[in-house]
Amino acid sequence: MFKPITIKDIAQALNLSASTVSRALSDSYEINPETKKRVLAYAEQNNYKRNPIALSLKQRKSYSIGVVVCEVANSFFSQAIDGIESIAYKNGYNIIITQTHDSYDREVMNIKHLANRSVDGILISLSAETTNFDHIKKLHDAGLPIVFFDRIYDGLATHKVSSDNRNGAKMATQHLIEKGYRKIAHLANAPHLSITKERLAGYREALTENGIPIEEANITYCHHGGSNQKEVDAAVQYFLSMDEKPDSIFVASDRLSIGCLTAIKKYGDKAYMPAIAGFSNSDVLDLFSTDFSSIRQPAFEMGRVATDRLIQLIESKYPVYEHESIVLGTELIERIPGKLL
């Protein structure tokens, strides 16, 4: 029967006290570098793993991180979770993943559940319905480390990690313009979300710089973030019913992109098929249309960076007063051919 190596085993093998080994494994300043090096080398060679239950009881830590996202099946968030796991596990933390399905009530319930599970910190990407942040502020004020990623809230003094939403939206819209499209509609997410405001700004900027009038009638919001297909269907049907139909659509999120293409296949016809460009990390979209150009976000890296900053907050021995707002670049994947004139 397999029996894992213990601190006492290491101490006996190296002729050290168990307390010395324990402090060396915890990187204590009380232990000289040479002893630390010996202990760590022996521990690694013999596959020593610290006992998370014993350690959590001793240090009053659970060595677990809560993750709150709208939907795990979303390609962007599944990739971000991979990044979160890569850093969490490397540092000895487990993660507990919860889904809000873009519901404010479920977000409140999930965050409360994670706090009751005594997680050491929480990574949050806000739901499309969230406009009241009291449930997050309360925990933050009580000292629970919290880091926002992707959909962020600026009203809290903590680290925030996002992609360059404004420039990504500008690239997508500019791409449509360069391919010959001029009447570009915008299918947006819930209007209060940070990503919605930033991506709308980039869309507007591209139109303005190219001398194309901004028509508010060409902008439609999906308040449920694409989780309600009927809402997306209605938005697409609105575009299709316009007297002067848009020749292209800039779509603001991964989930909305899939919903938009689904609706166009359902209600569109061969005589009218608008070009689509939008934010998406999903390869599944290639099955819908080869003419979908996408803005890819560095989801994996976003997860890595957000987790790294959260662990820094968790393990800091002193209060942290300086926080970073980290913005990662995006990439345009071109699939749209030039417009036939």
Automatic annotation (TrEMBL):
UniProt keyword list: DNA-binding, Transcription, Transcription regulation
InterPro entries, alphabetized: HTH_LacI (IPR000843), Lambda_DNA-bd_dom_sf (IPR010982), Peripla_BP/Lac1_sug-bd_dom (IPR001761), Peripla_BP_I (IPR028082), RNA_pol_sigma_54 (IPR000394)
Record domain HTH lacI-type: where: 5-59
GO molecular function: DNA binding
Domain of life: Bacteria
PANTHER family associated with the record: HTH-TYPE TRANSCRIPTIONAL REGULATOR GALS (PTHR30146:SF109), LACI-RELATED TRANSCRIPTIONAL REPRESSOR (PTHR30146)
Protein name, as recorded: LacI family DNA-binding transcriptional regulator
Organism of provenance: Olivibacter oleidegradans
